[in-house]
Amino acid sequence: MLPVKTYSIKVDGYGPHLYSARTPAKAKAQAWRAYRICHYISFGDFLRKLHIYRVANPEGVGDRILVNDRPATRCVGRSDHYVWFMYDDSDVVLCSHPADVTPIRPAGDGGATGREAGRLGLGNVRCSADLL
After folding, report:
1. Could you read off the pLDDT of 22-38 as tens digits, one per residue?
2. For a designed S-S bond to 117, which of 5, 98, 106, 122 qualifies (C-beta 3.0 to 4.6 A apart)?
3. What is the pLDDT of residues 51-98, one digit of tens each?
4. For the whole model, what pTM was predicted?
5. How much of the chain exceeds pLDDT 90, in percent?
6. Would you put residue 40 in left (φ > 0), alpha (ψ -120 to 50) or beta?
């Protein structure tokens, strides 16, 4: 499993947008799908209009979490009302209500690690958004 990285993608005529993906190619594909909602354009033509830059992950992006008892990684989202994430076995960015998300704390800080959290059934613990 590759780590989740953040890419800034700018299409000629529009401002930059952030995308979370495991590779630059997957970030480009996400941006193309979003762009095609309003503009019909082939992927090849889209690539000629695109500028992509690797940027540092914003705070929280890349953090390990449990979503409905499944391990995942936080991603860049389109709103702050939900937690945006990618399951470990997928490249699709999804969103979840914060009540369904449990942070996985690093071993040694006194909290539950991912394996312990799953074993203890902590996947449904309600937590405030500031803990995520």
Report:
1. 999 999 999 999 999 88
2. 122
3. 999 999 999 999 999 999 999 999 998 877 899 999 999 999 999 999
4. 0.75
5. 70
6. beta
DSSP string, 94-116: EEE-GGGEEE-PPTTSSS--HHH
End-to-end CA distance of the chain: 22
CATH code for the domain of 68: 2.30.30
43 and 85 part of one domain: no
Number of domains in the chain: 2
CB 53 within 8 A of CB 17: no
Q: Are residues 18 and 46 in the same domain?
A: yes
Determine what percent of the chain is predicted with pLDDT higher than 70: 80
Q: Are residues 70 and 121 in the same domain?
A: yes
Instruction: Spell out the residues 6+ positions from residue 102 whose beta carbon is closer than 8 angstroms to its own.
Output: 65, 66, 117, 122, 123, 124, 125, 127
Same domain, 79 and 123: yes
Using alpha carbons only, give the angle 14, 53, 82 rounded to the nearest 5 degrees.
70
